Amino acid sequence: MHIEYLNVYGQPSRTFYVALTHDEEIGKSGSKGIARYLSQQPFGDNGQFEFVLDEGTVIVEGVFPTLNNPLAIIGVAEKGYMSVEYRISMPPGHSSMPAAPTAIGILARAVDKLESTPQPSQFGRGPELGLLHGITPYLNFPLRLVLSNIWLFGPIIESMLSRKPATDAFQRTTTAVTLISGGEKENVLPTSASATVNHRTHTADSCQKILENNRRIINDDRLVPQIKTCSEASPISPYGKQIYAYRILEQTIRQTFERDRQPIIVAPGLMLAATDSRSYTNLTKNLYRYSPFVYGDDDYGRLHGDNERIRHSDMQRGLNFYFHLIVNNQLESISEKKLN
Asked: How far out from the chain centre does Cα 197 lie?
């Protein structure tokens, strides 16, 4: 791609850095090391970079009722990451004379409470409003009427979003019990049991707030929490047609994914998982997350799962996206007509 660009356009007038790391998202020497190095350069400190683009949200189809257009979501913020281990200790005993409830039983009740009690909705306190404003003109009546009057129909919209995990995650901190342990022998009462709960925190939440919510939900002081990981949600980056970096991304998406009879919608949104963009907050306030691929309902289950793949057509258009992104960043101004 880069050789093709050089052959056609020559050397770019603006400098681009491609950051590839060996410890994606979890290590301390990859993206964090690159960010430290760049910030020490004369051009790197005090937010001198125009923008940073990392992997992230995609083009989705069939996510919202009555929305037939493909929707490209630019992640202008990303959720935080928090893992909490809950542990309980009990006296030992023999299974022939059990003292109910056991450590596992108490832990199981706590897990059930956490899974059946969602964290409070933060609808209207994050970038999800920008997403809804973006799709509203393309929806059928009466849904278009509802989203045009969020001030009135807010509770109805919250309920609609909560029906699908993919949309509910945009408006609240999610809860997932991912690890559990307890007991060593089938005829011995367990002396301890533990479960790890993973939260992806909304931009309006914090680790401390979620910990307090969990304490109220579980309502059992025998379970002792220990925060294993806490990374707060990112700030919300500027977006809209008045923001040059955001407009460049919007224009490039339209150039590479616009369909003749079905215009693509480009709107800001929330990245639900963690990315390396968190490491680069010292370089710019314009941090965006976007992957130039199309996802349908059946694709989400393949993420980090069986048969994970990229369509051949998406691979080609993805290359075109990055090619045009370089080209468009050489422009001194962007015509509004290109953003229709």
From this structure: 18
Q: Helix 2-9 and helix 312-328: axis angle, to 10°?
A: 40
Nearest to 269 by CA among 191, 140, 166: 166
pLDDT at residue number 55: 94
Neighbours of 122 (CB within 10 A): 18
Secondary structure (3-state) at 103: helix
Give the residue-averaged pLDDT of 299-308: 74
Structure tokens at 177: 């019990």
Amino acid identity, position 79: K
Using CA atoms, how far residue 106 sits from 110, 116, 157, in Å, is 6, 16, 36
| Alpha helix (H) residue ranges in the chain | 2-9, 31-39, 103-116, 128-135, 143-147, 150-161, 165-168, 207-218, 244-257, 312-328
More confident residue, 206 or 313: 206
Q: Please state, in angstroms and as integers, the Cα–Cα distance from residue 267 to each residue in 5, 19, 73, 74, 251, following that order.
A: 28, 25, 5, 6, 12
Residue 192, burial from CB neighbour count under 10 angstroms (0-12, 13-18, 19+): middle
| Total-model pTM | 0.88
Tokens of 126: 């994050």
pLDDT in tens, 159-202: 999 998 888 999 999 999 999 999 999 999 999 999 999 999 99
Q: Classify residue 172 by its DSSP letter.
A: B
Pure H helices in 232-292: 244-257
| Domains defined along the chain, listed by start | 2-76+236-339 (no CATH), 80-231 (3.30.70.360)
For 199-245, what is each residue's pLDDT tens digit?
Answer: 999 999 999 999 999 999 999 999 999 999 999 999 999 999 899 99
Question: Does residue 142 have a cis bond before it (omega within 30 degrees)?
Answer: yes
pLDDT above 90: residue 314: no
Q: Helix (H, G, I), strand (E, B), or coil: what is residue 91?
A: coil
